[in-house]
Each structure stands twice: as structure tokens, then as C-alpha cells.
Amino acid sequence: MRKSTKLALAFAALAGAVGTTAYAENNASAKMRDGMMARLDKAMSDSDGAITFDQFSDAMNARLKKLVAANGGKLTVAQLADALEKARFERMARRIIARYDTRGDGTLTTDDITSRQKKVFAMLDKNNDGKIEKSELPKGHRFGRHRQPDNDDSVQ
């Protein structure tokens, strides 16, 4: 391959990576902005349409200030990362329990998991023969991607 072609491909790959990162950052920024605006709207509606700096500050960073206070007035990167990770995993756990919890009591049991699996299996078993075949899987699913190579696939 010619050097100019290699450089062009490398540049295209780099541009794609930068573009993907920029998109993710813009998406995260948009979510943060939307969250900030929702908190401002709530604070303003709670205060007849106008807020003071103290109300603004409380609406913007109440959770962050609580974390700082709970850690003796200083928050390290590790402490903040732990808090963010915990909040993220708690959101994920709530979504999983909401998806599986058949009784609506906020708990997850093996019966809940089995019930969900049976529903998904039934949806995939399009011909109701009690088996899922490759042809029944959604398009784009890469069945067998982790299979062991057979004799024809092995390197000699």
C-alpha cells in the first residue's frame, strides 16, 4: 500500500475517533445542560419565578456540596469517582429491578429472573417448537462468534 494511502487511512481513522469522542462529549454536555435547566426550572417554580444566588447555588450543586461536607470539607478525585460510580450503578440496579420485578415490591428473586427469561425465550422462539434456531434470531446477531474453531478453521 502506498504511503499516501496509509496516511489517508490513518487520518480517516483518527478523524473518526475524534468525531466519536466529540459526539459523546456533546451528548454528555447536552444531558448535563438539560439536567441543569430542569433543576433551575424547579427552583424557579418553587420560588414564584425568581431565585436568589443561594437558591441557584443550591439547585446547581446540592449533591456535590453534600459530598464535600460529608468528607470533611474536601473531596478527592477518588472520593468523587466512588460517589459517581455508586450513583451510576444504583441507577442501573433500579432499571434492572424494574425490568425483572414481577411483584412490584422492589426486590429481585430467581423466580423473577426465570419469568423474564421465559418471556424473552418465547419471543425468540418464533415457531413455538421449544428451541431457538439461528433463523429465529434478530438480524445482525452474530451467533456463534465465540465458538471453537473446527478442523477447517484451525491454523496449520
TrEMBL record:
Residues 126-139 have a biased composition (Basic and acidic residues). Residues 125-156 are annotated as: Disordered. Keywords: Signal. InterPro entries: EF-hand-dom_pair, EF_Hand_1_Ca_BS, EF_hand_dom. The lineage of its organism: Bacteria, Pseudomonadati, Pseudomonadota, Alphaproteobacteria, Hyphomicrobiales. PROSITE patterns: EF_HAND_1, EF_HAND_2. It comes from the Bacteria. Residues 1-24 form the signal peptide. Pfam families: EF-hand_5. Residues 112-147 form the EF-hand domain. This is EF-hand domain-containing protein.
